[in-house]
Design brief:
Layout lengths: L1 E2 L1 E4 L15 H14 L3 E5 L5 H13 L4 E7 L2 H11 L4 E9 L2 H8 L3 H18 L3 E6 L6 H14 L3 E6 L6 H14 L7 E6 L6 H10 L4 E4 L13 H10 L1 H4 L1 E2 L7 H12 L20 H9 L27 H10 L6 H17 L5 H14 L6 E8 L7 E7 L5 E7 L3 H13 L4 E9 L8 E9 L2 E9 L2 H17 L3 H9 L3
Bound molecules: 3-methyl-2-oxobutanoic acid and zinc ion.
Zinc ion (ZN) binds next to loops.
Length: 515
């Protein structure tokens, strides 16, 4: 069995998804979970793109051990210097240098000749190699790069010292057959390519990112660049969980495996969805809510008789365990702690006490508390505790089919100041959002609003996801409560708080545009 290395770029390419603004703490939390998941390389960010990204890369490099930590850099010395500075304390650092190589990018974006591009790659890789031996080079838009020129690019990068050559299908244009042909051509024609790692990086514009990545593996790729839940620029990147589970489930076919701890997949997916505010569609392969649900009578009958009839993977494999412990009103702190461990959480005593208190409150409102409820409580807690953010102190709403919807609320501002406001609106949610805008003094545009229940039943927790916009910057927010109006208020405040924290996305966009 060949080992395929997993290069996770959730924190870099994934963070380029519209509306995703991760704070430094959130990036660190995701990086720690990626460590538990067993990825080989974490692309922690783009150090030169903003001070926030630099600090995030530095902190991850310092604190996450047992994994290679990488920063992206353009082929300019100041970017490579920043990447090196941010990675100084990493156990295993890697600098990832990139430059576009397709004629379209050369003509319209870079305004450079092929010779100039080769020269710049040579200089940049040599410069990075002075700092460390582990240097990766990516030929941006390799998918649309003429194969003769791509071979020249690879040869120059390898001769200059690159230890990894990455072949991005940046715009998700290729078919699996074409992608595999490109990889085969590189392997046949480029001297020294068998001595380095060959990597894939596929985008999903035509829905073929995972298929292209797997075709690349068949053609000799040894590292795959992927993201959790497939998030990323535009339609996203190849999804880690889909590539990994395809290799695990069809090991007979691919004859390849990864170092991933499969039991951490579900939890990692949840965490990334929560912190990025990007909803996992119910029909998403592997981690979607319906991925293991059998609806039709014929399927249910088959599964009850023998799971193998309709299940090619077991939900337990990805960490979606059938609950051993059922919790309710009479459950004690000990059982609750066990449940948290079973769900994969490692909380401090203080945090457990706080979530336990909320669990008891929930038991008063809800007969059975499910695993999903507990996950929602733990996840919700982590944002509420931040004293540097807007927090909802109370909310009162009056509405009805003959009354004018009115919301009154009290907020604690990041400065500690308390404000109370009231507003009327077209509906209860509109009134709440108007009152929040008044209290913050900052009217943001509501781009989208979605509501769903965490579990079934009338007493279920409601989960609200919103996207808001201020100027050009988008932010996602999420709120959970048994009261959907409170969940709506929390989601809106969460998004506003995120507009205030990491602005790394806007900065990264500027860098991408070459500004
Ligand atoms: O899609 C792409 O080309 C990239 C590179 C910077 C690796 O993300
Ligand atoms: Zn990309």
């Amino acid at each position: 069995m060949r080992i395929i290395e997993i290069f996770d770029t959730t924190l870099r390419d994934g963070e380029q998804s519209p509306g995703v603004n991760l704070s430094r703490e959130e990036k660190l939390e995701i990086a720690r979970q990626l460590g538990r998941l067993g990825v080989d390389i974490i692309e922690a960010g783009f150090a030169a793109s903003s001070p926030g990204d630099f600090e995030a890369v530095r902190q991850i490099a310092r604190e996450v051990r047992g994994v290679t930590v990488c920063s992206l850099a353009r082929t300019v010395q100041s970017d490579i210097d920043s990447a090196y500075e941010a990675l100084r304390e990493a156990e295993n650092p890697r600098i990832h240098v990139f430059l576009a190589t397709s004629d379209i990018h050369l003509k319209y974006k870079l305004r450079m000749t092929r010779e100039q591009v080769l020269e710049q790659i040579d200089q940049a890789v040599r410069y990075a190699v002075k700092y460390m031996s582990n240097v990766e080079f990516s030929a941006e838009d390799a998918g649309r790069t003429d194969i003769d020129f791509l071979c020249q690019v690879a040869e120059v990068a390898i001769r200059a010292g690159a230890k990894v050559f990455n072949v991005p299908d940046t715009v998700g244009y290729l078919t699996p057959h074409e992608y595999a042909e490109k990889i085969r051509a590189l392997r046949e024609r480029v001297p020294g390519i068998d001595k380095i790692k060959l990597s894939s990086h596929c985008h999903d514009d035509l829905g073929m990112a995972v298929a292209n990545t797997l075709a690349g593996i068949q053609a000799g790729i040894t590292q795959v660049e992927v993201t959790i839940n497939g998030i990323g620029e535009r339609a996203g990147n190849a999804s880690l969980e889909e590539v990994v589970m395809a290799l695990a489930t069809r090991a007979d076919f691919y004859q390849a495996k990864t170092n991933i701890d499969l039991g951490q997949i579900y939890r990692t997916s949840r965490l990334v969805s929560k912190l990025t505010g990007m909803v996992v569609p119910p029909n998403k392969a592997i981690v979607g809510a319906n991925a293991f649900a059998h609806e039709s009578g014929i399927h249910q009958d088959g599964v009850l008789k023998e799971k193998l009839t309709y299940e090619i993977m077991k939900p337990e494999t990805i960490g979606l365990s059938e609950s051993k412990l059922v919790l309710g009103k009479h459950s004690g702190r000990h059982a609750f702690r066990e449940k948290l461990v079973e769900l994969g959480y490692q909380l401090s005593d203080e945090e457990i006490n706080e979530v336990f208190r909320r669990f008891k409150e929930l038991c008063d409102k809800k007969k059975t508390v499910t695993d999903e409820d507990i996950v929602a409580l733990v996840e919700d807690k982590q944002l509420v505790d931040r004293s540097d953010l807007y927090q909802l102190e109370y909310l009162h709403v009056s509405c009805g089919n003959t009354a004018v919807p009115t919301a009154t609320l009290r907020l604690r501002k990041p400065s500690g100041e308390i404000v109370e406001e009231a507003a009327v609106g077209n509906g209860a949610v509109d009134a709440i959002y108007k009152a929040i805008d008044r209290a913050t003094g900052d009217a943001v545009e509501l781009v989208s609003y979605q509501i769903q229940s965490v579990t079934g039943g009338r007493d279920a927790l409601g989960e609200v996801r919103v996207q808001v916009k201020r100027g050009e910057v988008l932010a996602n927010g999420r709120g959970v409560s048994t009261d959907v109006l409170e969940a709506s208020a929390k989601a809106y405040l969460d998004a506003i708080n995120r507009l205030g924290v990491g602005r790394t996305q806007a900065a990264a966009a500027r860098v991408r545009a070459g500004v």
